[in-house]
Design brief:
Carveol dehydrogenase [Rhodococcus jostii RHA1]; alpha/beta; globular; seven-stranded parallel sheet; Rossmann fold; NAD
């Protein structure tokens, strides 16, 4: 306990899923938390996104640790809104030490229009850039920036548009491109910030047991042979993604990596592509 004691951490997409688990874990380890989430749906995304009550519940979970939390309903695509909300939160908590740029969507389906590409790319990449760039003015030596990519995005780049891990419609193409850009962006950012002793690293998860994975559009990507696949259908093929014989990892598995990169245990770790993928990249 206490691995990030005294730090203030910003987590985007923090109302549920991976983001909420990261926030709660970091609070349990001693951090005060800033939580942002859009708290509403985004066009073309087939599964419902978090709501205000999810963000409120996430705040209550953080508070159980005895640490402070400030939250706001913010769309990471809106740089001005991110800047304003972050200025208010830092004003209240006094500092900012860690950024976890986690917010993301994955609109899948071959029938989706080009707007799905735009929305996926804008949330998943532009949203990361907006978050990090809004935060830079508050960060100093010892700070840590953690972005969240995707093993699926990396594998799609290797496979090409026609490959087995290629995009599923416009939204899938936008998602994959965004995750590939996050990887390159984080490596470039790490080089720029290293002289200031500010670290930047990217985590690339495989399938994670969250709402982004558990929806019919995602099941359909893994089971295109079925018109309306359910979880049991997808579970038969989910393990094909990983080298290890598991269908997916848990949010806690990613939170362990986030906590390490947020803590001073990784004070000299920067420019790292940390794959929490159960051997997916080895397999493909």
């Amino acid at each position: 306990m206490g691995r990030v004691e005294g730090k203030v951490v910003l987590v985007t997409g923090g109302a549920r899923g991976q983001g909420r688990r990261h926030a709660v874990r970091l609070a349990e380890e001693g951090a005060d938390i800033i939580l942002f989430d859009v708290c509403g749906d985004i066009e073309h995304n087939s599964y419902p996104l978090a709501r205000q009550h999810d963000l409120d519940e996430a705040c209550r979970e953080v508070e159980k640790s005895g640490h402070r939390v400030v939250s706001a309903a913010v769309d990471v695509r809106d740089r001005a809104a991110v800047e304003a909300a972050l200025a208010s939160a830092v004003g209240e908590l006094g500092r900012l030490d860690v950024v976890v740029a986690n917010a993301g969507i994955c609109p899948l389906g071959n029938e989706l229009p080009i707007g799905a590409f735009v929305n996926a790319f804008d949330v998943d990449f532009v949203g990361v850039v907006n978050t990090v760039h809004a935060a830079l003015q508050y960060l100093s030596a010892g700070a840590s920036i953690i972005t969240v990519g995707s093993v699926a995005g990396l594998l799609a780049e290797k496979a090409g548009p026609g490959g087995a891990m290629g995009p599923q419609g416009a939204g899938g193409a936008g998602y994959n491109l965004a995750k590939q850009f996050i990887d390159r962006y984080t490596m470039a950012l790490a080089g720029q910030l290293a002289p200031q002793s500010i670290r930047a690293n990217v985590i690339h998860p495989t399938n994670v047991n969250t709402d982004m994975l558990h929806n019919e559009a995602m099941y359909k990507m893994f089971r295109p042979d079925l018109e309306h696949p359910a979880l049991d259908d997808a579970l038969l093929v989910f393990p094909m993604m990983q080298g290890m014989p598991i269908p997916y990892v848990e949010p806690d598995d990613i939170s362990h990596a986030v906590t390490y990169l947020a803590s001073d245990e990784s004070r000299y770790v920067t420019g790292v592509q940390l794959k929490v993928d159960a051997g997916a990249t080895l397999k493909f």
